[in-house]
Every structure is written in C-alpha cells, then in structure tokens.
TrEMBL record:
It is found in: Cytoplasm. Gene3D superfamilies: P-loop containing nucleotide triphosphate hydrolases. Its EC number is 2.7.1.24. It comes from Pseudomonas songnenensis. Pathway: Cofactor biosynthesis; coenzyme A biosynthesis; CoA from (R)-pantothenate: step 5/5. This is Dephospho-CoA kinase. It comes from the Bacteria.
Length: 202
C-alpha cells in the first residue's frame, strides 16, 4: 500500500528537526521542504540557469553555486522579481518533495515544512503534526542555536503563521517543552499510533 503522508510543522526553533530526526531513527522516511528548496537550485539544475539569465552572474558564488543570501537580498525589496522567483521555484520544490516522498518504503512518510500552513500544503497531507513550544522557549533555543539576537528571532516569528492559526490545522500537537529524552519517548508513542492508521491517505 502507498504510504500516507504526515505533514510536520512548527515555528522557528520549535524542534521540527529534532522531532523529524527521531522519526527517521525509527525508520520513517523523512523529506524536508527546506532541503528540497536547496536541491532544486544546485549546480547543473535548469532552475539555476534561469536564475542566472534573469539576475546575472553576480548571483553566483565563486564556486559556481547559487549565492542564496545574495539572491534573497536582491529580491527582498522587489515584489515583481520575488514573484518571478517564487513562480519558478515553488512548482519545482513541490515536484522535488513529491519525488522524494514517492521513494518511501515506510508505512507512512513525513514531509517537514515550516510553511505547511501558510503555503496551503497542509491540504495535501493525510495528517498534520504541529510541534509547539511556548514562545519564550522558542526564542531561548533559537538564539542559543543560531547566535541570533532576540529581535531577529522575533522578526521571523512575526512573519510566520500565528501559533493559533497553525494549531487550528493540527491533527496532533507535540508540546516540546521538556528534555530531549522525553521528546524521543513522545515521538515513539506517536509512531506506534501512526502505525495503526491506514485511512489517512489523500
Ligand atoms: P528551524 O525552523 O529554525 O529550523 P526547528 O523547528 O527545526 O527550527 P530544531 O532545530 O529541531 O528546531 O530545535 C531548535 C534548537 O532547540 C536545536 O538546537 C535543538 O537541538 C534544540 N531542542 C529542540 N528540542 C529540544 C528539547 N526538547 N530540549 C532541549 N533542546 C531542544
């Protein structure tokens, strides 16, 4: 039977990666939309050529790879260019994610996407798991991980879907406010539950 898809989301620093890694260690096939977004612009992929034709060689690093930060800055202030880029990349990212999900041999597969709710992708998955943490913990863990300032983290928080909006679309909520061994046990509990589900396909 074709695996059903679990959408995994949560705000910045909520613990999506930590949770996804635990599922992966239990043998669940995991695809990360952020990784797919990087793969579609790797050297040799047609999207990179199109980006260079549009924005010039200056969006390339010396290595020939895309200067993602530079490109982000270039389109940041220009709505039309940003739209062009999104129109190019979004379908490619979706296809890349779908291609990798199709390789799954586990009973269900996980699509990790920070923007699962904002992008409407939640409609395409069988079930949604939201990793949720109190905002104070989210800020503390992210500033510790990224050496970012509290203001920077707050700015990203504000640009993401509001917590309530995300939780509205959740089938399951994992509140990641304890230590990592507790988190691992929760993931195992959810995994056992997910293995009993057959009807979550869409
Ligand atoms: P982003 O959206 O920014 O990529 P994320 O949702 O993937 O973040 P993680 O990178 O998994 O979040 O977690 C953020 C940081 O908090 C990491 O350094 C991670 O190791 C740590 N962390 C996650 N869960 C816990 C926990 N239960 N206890 C302690 N540290 C944790």
């Amino acid at each position: 039977m074709k695996p059903w898809i679990l959408g995994l989301t949560g705000g910045i620093g909520s613990g999506k990666t930590a949770v996804a890694d635990r599922f992966a260690s239990l043998g669940v096939h995991v695809v990360d939309a952020d990784q797919a977004a990087r793969w579609v612009v790797e050297s040799g992929r047609p999207a990179l050529q199109q980006i260079v034709e549009r924005f010039g060689q200056e969006v390339l690093l010396q290595s020939g790879e895309l200067d993602r930060a530079g490109l982000r800055q270039k389109v940041f202030a220009d709505g039309a260019e940003r739209q062009w880029l999104e129109k190019l990349l979004h379908p490619l990212i979706r296809a890349e994610v779908a291609r990798h999900l199709a390789l799954a041999e586990s009973p269900y597969a996980i699509m990790v996407s920070p923007l699962l709710v904002e992008s409407g992708q939640y409609r395409q998955v069988g079930r949604v798991l939201v990793v949720d943490v109190p905002e104070s913990l989210q800020i503390a863990r992210t500033t510790a991980r990224d050496q970012a300032s509290e203001e920077q983290v707050r700015a990203i928080l504000n640009a993401q879907a509001q917590r309530e909006e995300r939780l509205k679309h959740a089938d399951d909520v994992l509140v990641n406010d304890r230590d990592l061994s507790w988190l691992a046990a929760e993931v195992e509990r959810l995994h056992r539950f997910y293995l009993t589900l057959r009807g979550a396909q869409k």
